[in-house]
Amino acid sequence: MDQSFIRPASATGVLELLAKSLGGLTPELRKAATHVLEHSNLISVSSIREMAEQANVKPNTLVRMARAIGFEGYEDFRKPFRERVIKGQDDFPDRVRWLQSLAQDGKLAGLYSEIATASIANIEQQFSGTTSVAIKAAADDIVHAPTTYVLGTGMANSIAAYFAFIASLAIGKVTAIPRDGLLPTDGLARAATSDVLLAMAFKPYQHEVIDAVELAVSRGITVIGISDSPASPILTGAGHRFVVPMITTQFFASSVALMSLLETIIAFVIAATSPEAVKSIEMLQQHRQELHRYLSYGER
Length: 300
What we know:
By secondary structure, this protein is of the alpha/beta class. Helix content is 55%, strand content 8%. The chain is built from 13 helices and five strands. It has a five-stranded parallel sheet with strand order 2-1-3-4-5, with helices on both faces.
C-alpha cells in the first residue's frame, strides 16, 4: 500500500473515493466496484465470497479493487463499514410502531405501509448520504453562474422545469432543457465555461443526457450530477455528485428523495443570494396579487 495513502475515516468517504476512481479501473474491477457502490448496505454484513457471488466476480477481484484505490486489501476497505454498524444507528421506535400498526388497518394497509416505509427510508438515506457542505458548494456555484441549465428527461423533465422556475425567482438566469423539441446538447449551444449544468439521470440512462453532460465537461462547464447510482455515467466528470435513493414498491421510481434534495439546494441558493433576490420575489408576489391571480376568501 502507498505509504502516503490516508484511509477515509468514514464509510461515506470510502464510497466517494471508489466512485471517483471508477474511470481508472479495469473493466472487471469496475464491474466489482459498481456492484459495491450500488449495494454498499451489504458490505458490513456480507462476506467477501458473498459479495463476489452477487457481483458475479471472483473474491480476488474485490481484493484487487480495494488495492487499486489504496487499501491493503478488502478487509481494510471494509473496516469503516463494520465500524459504522458497531457504533449503531439512530433508533426510531415510535416510527416503527406506527409503521407496524399500518399493516393491521384494512386490506390496502399493507401497501400503504410499504410505501410509507420506502419513502421515509429514501429521505433518511438521502440526508445521511450527503452533507450541508456539499449542498452549499453546489448552491454557491449556481448563484455565481451567469446561467444555470437544468437538464432532466422523462420523469425528471417536469422536475427540472419546477427547479428552474423556483430558482429563477431568486437568481434570474436558470433555464430548463431540453425544450421546444430540441436535444439537450442543443440547449447547451450558447453555454459558456462559467455556466453550470445541473443534470439528472436515472436508470435506464438515456444517451442524450450522457451526451449533454460529456459536452459540458469537455467545455469546462461545472456539472452538478444527480443520479441513482454512484457508478452513473453522468457522475464521472461532475464537479458535484449527488446520489439519490429511489426505493419503491411500485413499477416507477420514487422521486421523494430527489425532490427533497432539490428543495434543499433551492433553499441554499436563496440563502446565498443578496437581499435584492427577496425583493424580487416580493415584487412578483405583489404583481400577481394586483392582477387577481389568486382566489381570495369570499369569491366563491
